[in-house]
Structures are given as C-alpha cells and as structure tokens.
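This entry is listed as follows:

___
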Amino acid sequence: MPSCRSLDGEDLINFEVGCYTLYARLAAAARAHFGKPSVKEVLMKFEDLGLAEPLLRAVAAQGYQATTKIQTAAIPPVLEAVT
C-alpha cells in the first residue's frame, strides 16, 4: 500500500499546474476527436465520469460538484481513448 504524506506548497502548485495541463489536453483531445464539441446542456457529477478515486478526491477537495460544459464533452472521449 502506498504511503501518504502531507502536501507542501510546491506539491500543491505542481498539482494545480498538472490539473491545468490535463484540462488543456482533454479540451484539445475533444476538439481533435469531434471538431467543435457538441456540448450537453445537462451537467454531470464528476463521480458519473468514471474518474479514478484520487482524482475524485482532489476535485472534491477543491469544492467542485458538477462538471463544466467542456468537461462534460471532453472527459468521456478521452477516457475511452485511454482504456
């Protein structure tokens, strides 16, 4: 079992930069796959997207409950491409 440790300021900055990088990659993948993404009007909960538990905990720690329109459009195709 992996050990847990507290995050310091540098770790949090690295995590935030990583999230922005992931978001940019997801948006680019959606544009490449669909062209201009067709956006669903109903927003989803992050739990409904099939994200890994560590990502769900990180999202919840930031206070996010529902996806944005671009996340709703971009995340599922990227997860399909990865699996």
